[in-house]
Amino acid sequence: MRRILILIIFGTVGTALLAGLGVWQVRRLAWKQEILAEIESRIAAPPAALPADPDPERDRYLPVRLSGTIEAGEIHVLVSTRDAGAGYRIIAPFLVDAATDDAARGGRRILIDRGFVRSENRDQPRQPGPATVTGNLHWPQETDSFTPEAEIDANIWYARDVPAMASALDTEPVLLVARSATDPGIRPLPVDAHGIPNDHLQYAVTWFSLAAIWAGMSILLLWRSRARKTG
C-alpha cells in the first residue's frame, strides 16, 4: 500500500505541476495577444509630426508623416525576405522640414529605412531629393553578441543598430521605417507585429502533452503494482 500511495502522490503532483505550467502559458498567450493587438493598432494609427524628443520606449511604432530631403549617403543592411530572398535594406539620412517637426525648428537629420532592394541592385544609383514619407518610428533590437561587426569599407551591415548607423551618417539616433514608396526601385518593408515572437500556444500544448503523458505513465505504474500485488 505504501508503494501505491507514493505512486499516487508522485503522479498527482507531477501531473498538476505540468498542467499548471500549461495553464500559465495559456494566460501568457492571452496577454501576448493583447500586446500584439495594441501594437498593430498603434502602427495603423493616423500619422503625427515628429516628436521633439523621441523616446525609444514611448515612441516605438509611432506613425509619423514627414516632409524633407533624402540626402546622399546610404547604409546597406543585409536582410532576407520570404519572397525575394537575400537583399539589403537601404538606410539614408533625412533632413526634416520644420512643418512636420513638433520641435518646429526643422533642420533635424534622422535615419530613414527606405525599404528593400535585391542584392544585384544594391549599387544601383538612387537619387536623393525632396520627399514626403509616411512610416513608423522604430528602434529595432537586432544585435546580440553573435552579430558580426559591420563591414564599413564594403558598406555591409548585419543589423539595424540605430545608434551606430546614426553615428555613421551624422544623424539623430531616430529611425523612420517607410511604409510609403520613396523610390521606384525600392520596396518598402513597413513595421508590423509579425516578427514579434508569440510561441505561448506551442509551449502550452507541450506542457499539457507532458501532463497527459505523466498521468498515463503514473496510471500504468499503478496498474502494474496492483497486478503484481494481486498476482
Question: Would you mind describing this structure in some detail?
Answer:
The chain has 231 residues and is an alpha+beta fold. Helices cover 35% and strands 22% of the residues. It is built from 3 helices and 6 strands; from the N terminus they run H-E-E-E-E-E-H-E-H. It has helices spanning 2-43, 162-169, 200-230, and strands spanning 63-70, 75-81, 85-96, 109-118, 129-138, 175-178. Strands 1-3-4-6-5 form a 5-stranded mixed barrel. Helix 1 (2-43) packs antiparallel against helix 3 (200-230).
Shape: elongated
- Mean pLDDT figure: 88
- Give the tally of structural domains: 2
Instruction: Indicate the structural class.
Output: alpha+beta
- Rg over alpha carbons: 27 Å
The total count of strands amounts to 6
Helix count from the secondary structure assignment:
3
SSE pattern, N- to C-terminal: HEEEEEHEH
Report how far apart the termini are.
15 Å
Question: Helical percent range?
Answer: 25-40%
**Low-pLDDT segments, ≥5 res:** none
What's the story with the biggest beta sheet? 5 strands, mixed, barrel
GO cellular component, one term: plasma membrane
Region (Disordered): 120-142
Transmembrane segments: 204-223
Family: Belongs to the SURF1 family.
Features:
231 residues, alpha+beta, five-stranded mixed β-barrel, 3 helices, 6 strands, 35% helix, 22% strand, Surf1/Shy1, transmembrane helix, SURF1-like protein, Surf1/Surf4, transmembrane
